[in-house]
Fold this sequence. Notes:
Layout: H1 3-13, E1 21-29, E2 36-42, E3 55-56, E4 59-62, H2 68-80, E5 89-96, E6 102-109, E7 121-125, E8 133-137, E9 139-145, H3 147-153, H4 159-171
Parallel strand pairs: 1-6
Antiparallel strand pairs: 1-2, 1-4, 2-3, 2-9, 5-6, 7-8
Amino acid sequence: MPDKTRRAARRSRLAPVPVKRSAGLLVFRRPEGALEVLLGHMGGPLWAAKDLGGWSIPKGEYGPEETALDAARREYEEELGLAPPEGVLLELGAAQQRSGKIVTVWAVEGDVDPAQVRPGTFTMEWPRGSGVQQAFPEIDRVEWFDPARAAEKLLAGQRPFLDRLVAGLARQP
Length: 173
């Protein structure tokens, strides 16, 4: 049997891997007309020393029992400890990450005081292989950034959402 045929037969016996999905809210403000976005630095020891490319839009995974928008709102509240801002939602669409995960994001205008953020936590074994479980903040700090600086800080797979927000706001009257 040729290699190509063997590979095709092997693939047909494997169960499909479900695609993971995440949803989030990108909060923006326009003090004195200048656009700023709110980003969170990812918490935990794996991200502690990473600044550029270590920031994220508040987001998280969801399953089939929840809509993407409901998940985006829930995850915002879980990660920041604050209710999401009320306002007109701008749909920024979806983007597939390098991991294969599909992320969907909405933007909403609001003014959040980073000092009011009370992040949720997650638990992981740390140090790895130690058997010790430790709790870490999901987001260890939150800051406002202009679009150029935000593009440097954001995970590469989330930069399309920033670009879509800037383009969408530029089209508004």
